[in-house]
Amino acid sequence: MLDSTSGASFSARLDAVAQETEELLDRLLAPSAQPDEISRPRRLLDAMRYGSLGGGKRLRPFLVVESAALFGVPRANALMAGAALECVHCYSLVHDDLPAMDNDDLRRGRPTAHKAFDDATAILAGDGLLTFAFDILSRPETHPDAEVRVRLVNLLARASGIGGMAGGQMLDLAAEGRFAPTAGQVMSEHDVATLQSMKTGALLRFACCAGPILGRASPDQAAALNRYGIGIGQAFQIADDLLDVEGDQAVVGKATGKDAAAGKATMVQILGVAGARARLQALVADAEKVLAPFGAAAATLISAAHFIADRRN
Amino acid sequence: MLDSTSGASFSARLDAVAQETEELLDRLLAPSAQPDEISRPRRLLDAMRYGSLGGGKRLRPFLVVESAALFGVPRANALMAGAALECVHCYSLVHDDLPAMDNDDLRRGRPTAHKAFDDATAILAGDGLLTFAFDILSRPETHPDAEVRVRLVNLLARASGIGGMAGGQMLDLAAEGRFAPTAGQVMSEHDVATLQSMKTGALLRFACCAGPILGRASPDQAAALNRYGIGIGQAFQIADDLLDVEGDQAVVGKATGKDAAAGKATMVQILGVAGARARLQALVADAEKVLAPFGAAAATLISAAHFIADRRN
């Protein structure tokens, strides 16, 4: 386990990236239009800012920054890639909260975007944030080498699309019995793992793979970060399932007990609470193992694995 | 005006690109997952296919192919860029048709995606198609040079996002008086031109700029195609406004008379029918002028300008 010193240091590093990401997104989403843009309609910009600023741990940008730091990538480049990834994450929250989807009124303790604005504006704000992610990634400020930028674009598109996050949300709606042919089907552990690796795992994995791409790491190094990313993605979702069962709504910042109410299979249901906790331990141990070749340089990423497994909100 | 021979040839060229685009999208949206994808959930894939296959003139891919042909770009590369652009166009139709947006039940004579599936699936299918566009553009099959691909990604993101199409849809909803501060405001010709240049103009302009990028054209050549693209975008929308006033719903394939019903300002309302027709003529004349340096090679693009101005659906 971590001692209190490294814990404090970890928390400070996480907060620093959160603040830098906030400042960067605030600047990128300024009212003045960029070259090639005719204007930035105010209502849409406000909704995109509402959906992406002022909240969240910024865990994904943090993982981009820390995975990039291993390979000596300038922090400004990593923060751009992290901001792009955060735009995708935030778009997914705005769309998932819509009445037609999960119908949530509360997100991070604030009204969801469609409550603060309206459904049409929230749909467009999500579309706008998703599109903006690829605008950011493709700019020279993200990396001077076009080959690096276009690899990031392709990997983020794959992680976000039908074979990743969007596909995972589709499976999640089906798991709630929303569509006739799937209603009442019992999900296997494999089914749940597939759903989770797509819905939440794909973006976390991208975060950890972005560093090696930005830093032109060796194939072995890239493979280690890829495996680390897959593992913490699994840990993140198991911790999320535990929070849904055991968490306090006031601390978690969103409604809890929803999975059971929706009749949805989770890893906790399949493995039991003790089994889920054992799985978390194994995933953290594996993260430590795959990062061992990086030595002390990977200490923060190892702390991140503990943080994700132990999180309370 | 065109003689019947070139008219027939134009129509054959347009149909050829439509068929090639259909075949390419059908292949790209196959059930088998791509590398790095875990799976392609069937319901989401079906909805993405429903929203993008089996209809449309494929005008945007056609403009990509023809603008690329001017610079000797291999047709396979242009078709990939065209397919990406068509994914963005189709996503925008799926989202714009949603009950929370324009609430349309009919599109190209078929039920809209949310009618054929459900609202949640249609939202995700739109998200999936938008994301897929950047997947396609960033693949080496689109162009061997990463610098070219990443320029296309950036230009498409700008054309599609808050400073382009999504922003234009926001202005369009506001023009219908959907939001209190804008309700009842009279739009100037400048306001209408801005809305239209963003909502529909930006993607048509991208189509014409894609060729020069794929073909590494000179700045003068790129500027000519950019101006051509802006002009045909304006012509497209004026023709659309005329169709909304004068068109036959059975031929147009969607509801007509909607602008007046929504109290929305159009170029036809501002310029009158005769004034709108005169503007169309001027735009076509300008298209002929800016393409004159390309000589006979630009004949099809000039036919396209006539086609857009004269279209009946």
Molecular structure report:
- The structure is a homodimer of 313-residue chains.
- By secondary structure, chain A is an all-alpha fold.
- The first copy, chain A, has one domain: Farnesyl Diphosphate Synthase.
- Chain A is 69% helix and 1% strand.
- Chain A has a two-stranded antiparallel ribbon with strand order 1-2.
Offer a quick outline of the entry:
The structure is a homodimer of 313-residue chains. Chain A is an all-alpha fold.
For the record, what CATH class of chain A applies? Mainly Alpha
Instruction: Tell me, briefly, the overall form of chain A.
Output: globular
Biggest pleated-sheet summary of chain A: 2 strands, antiparallel
Largest contact between chains: A-B, 64 and 64 residues
User: How many domains of chain A?
Assistant: 1
Quaternary organization: homodimer
Second rung of CATH, namely the architecture of chain A: Orthogonal Bundle
Uncertain runs of chain A with pLDDT below 50, 5 residues or more?
1-5
What percentage of residues of chain A falls in helices of 4 or more residues?
Answer: 55-70%
CATH superfamily label of chain A: Farnesyl Diphosphate Synthase
What structural keywords apply?
homodimer, 313 residues, mainly alpha, Farnesyl Diphosphate Synthase, disordered N terminus
